[in-house]
Amino acid sequence: MTLRPGITVVIPSIPPRRELLRRAVASVLGQTMPAAALSVVVDSDRAGAAVTRQRALDAVNTRWVAFLDDDDELKPNHLEALFSAAVDHDALYVWSRFQVALPRRGIKPWGEPGFELRDGPEPLGAGTFEQWNDEQPAQTTITTLVSTELARAVGGFAPHNRPLVPCEVGGCDDAPDHVHVGDDGNYEIDGQRAGEDWDFTLRCRAAVPLDAMRHVPEVTWLWHHHSNNTSGLPDRW
Fold first, then answer.
1. 3-state secondary structure the chain
2. What is the pTM of this model?
3. Is 5 left (phi over 0), alpha (psi -120 to 50) or beta?
4. Cβ atoms of residues 188 and 179 within 8 Å
5. CB neighbours of 135 closer than 8 A, spacing ≥ 6?
6. Under a CB-based contact definition with an 8 Å cutoff, are residues 145 and 6 in contact?
7. Is the bond into 123 cis (omega within 30 degrees of 0)?
8. Which of 112, 143, 158, 200 is the most buried (most CB within 10 A)?
9. pLDDT tens for each residue of 73-130
């Protein structure tokens, strides 16, 4: 497939989040640098966020893809800030800073102004707001800008027979102290479940030079935390 210039924003969604999806889409339409396209796929068969995100990625025909969860929202400068960093630094994987949005009691999580904002990087580790460090690989979240060719070359979000462990990126003998295997057998990083988005990040890092990973030290999106968070798992809704 020949890719055309521009950015496609990919949003996986689930049926109970129609109102949240409207907010996410509105934040994409309000960008200072307009997206070339929007790829939204609704998980109607409980396949999970990874499969649904992959379906949306498969529909992308632009050189860049930006990922967004349906319950989060972009600030107007998000695409412009990340794309500028990609161009200025010849980067292929770019992420920025966020604020955590917590709903005020008694107000729906998508209500305006029904939430209070707290500065990150909590609940993630400090490395999330720093340039990439192979010795301390960080969760960037999935709200990133990535070269479409890179996203597909590393396998996207398709299931992998063997998860990529951080040591294979940094060349260390043992996993970093902030990474361990949880009781359910899944990796945890900084005390948080490391899902398919972290696996995707590690695969991207393994495929490109260090300089191709770029952090933008600017708040460009809101990470909403509420009682309906599902962590992308189909058995939580």
1. CCCEEEEEEEEEECHHHHHHHHHHHHHHHCCCCCCCEEEEEECCCCCCHHHHHHHHHHCCCEEEEEECCCCCEECCCHHHHHHHHHHHHCCCEEEEEEEEEEECCCCCCCCCCCEEEEECCCCCCHHHHCCCCCCCCCCCCCCEEEEHHHHHHCCCCCCCCCCCCCHHHHCCCCCCCCEEECCCCCEEECCEECCHHHHHHHHHHHHCCHHHEEEEEEEEEEEECCCCCCCCCHHHC
2. 0.84
3. beta
4. yes
5. 170, 172, 176
6. no
7. yes
8. 200
9. 999 999 999 999 999 999 999 999 999 998 876 555 544 557 789 999 998 989 999 9
Beta-strand pair 93-103/115-119: antiparallel
CB atoms near residue 131 (< 10 Å): 12
pLDDT digits (tens, 9 = 90+) for 24-41: 999 999 999 999 999 999
Name the token pair of 147: 């070269």
Domains within the chain, CATH numbers bracketed: 4-165+195-223 (3.90.550.10)
> Which amino acid is present at 119?
D
**Contacts of 155 by beta carbon, 8 Å cutoff, 6+ apart:** 203
Does residue 13 contact residue 72 with C-beta atoms inside 8 Å? no
Please give the structure tokens belonging to residue 202: 């590690």
Block residue for tokens 């990126």: 169
